């Protein structure tokens, strides 16, 4: 009997969220996951990510407001008119997938809202304003969301504790296809629900909000660093590390 050598498993270079070193987009980017690290040294420059099954213009975060170039691995958002825009097709591919699973990550530091308005780390919605996903920060620097699914009524939540204004955070909102949509912030990379301190996480109140956006079209405004209005009210002051949108749920809700 001839024993053939076992074929070695080819290493693709793609890591899990838990193992990713956050140094290269290619380490995490896949057909399921879009990753865009801040890399452009030029003021007013766009950013181009990798993965998510996207191509061409759908990989681009298009800047507005003449965002400062890369410094210390981040880009400074000025809170006046700086933001990035994503395409409708990118959101349709990554969030409206039939698995009802998705994750949005915005990693940044020195997150500082103003004393009056809610500002936004990310805001996605359709033209009819019946589908909304947003990571917002209130006037007390508490993380929350503005969430609506199928026009069932917007759901507003805020964490109990506020984020520090000189700290680096992973801010996340996600759906696992089973539980209700959840959000949270953490200083160390979270991979499970218990990694978020009890006062730094929330679950949506509406039992119907399980993250099912299958078949929806995100043809409204899709922004990073501001709300649906773009420049002006809603713009956030912070330093942006990276943005991730995935068809996968990065967080284990049962642990």
Automatic annotation (TrEMBL):
Name of the protein in its database record: Uncharacterized protein
